[in-house]
Amino acid sequence: MIQELFNSDPFLLERRAMVDDQLRRRNIRDERLLAVMEEVPRHEFIPEKDRALSYEDKPVPIGEGQTISQPYIVAAMIDALQVSPENTVLEIGTGTGYQAAVLSRLAAHVYTVERHAALAATAEHVFQQLGYANIMVVVGDGSLGLPDRAPFDRIIVAAAAPAVPDPLLQQLGEGGRIIIPVGNPESQVLELVRKVQGEFITSRLEGVRFVPLIGQGGFSTRNF
Prior knowledge:
alpha/beta, Rossmann fold, two-stranded antiparallel ribbon, 7 helices, 9 strands, disordered N terminus
């Protein structure tokens, strides 16, 4: 039985080790999140030539100058969001779709925005293959959010901005949360913004380094 399970999912043991060694040992305690990250096949979202790196504790290039974040950073950001099953989530920076896939197992619906059409198409293809039907992929400027789908309960930004884009703040519902890397292109800090009685309360979490958020509410393409 165990051998049959392993044969059907050759990355199962690596995924379990990722959860135990990279997440639990770094104080990720949300059992729903841990179970989902043990379930979602991260290797399906990694280019074929780099699949051996799928469960290592590092970001992996995915093309278009972008990367898929290391598992711990994905977990830490989602953990801070405190996603509930009834939530609608906006993700900025789809990449190949791994983070959206994890979110889709935790929330009611996920909208994800990607400025690179090729990456968006790859993500959509994988979602269809894996049967993740509650994710909508949009190609566009993620720094502007999706005003026609707002408000959102949770917003997660997988690219660094000089400040939290105002359109994202305006699209956050009451009681909602945004997590975003804020800083310069070389160094950022994760900021968690909560909307409480119409006011925005910001907490600074840990230092990170992300690719830049390009767009009207992010960095200019002239700088890169």
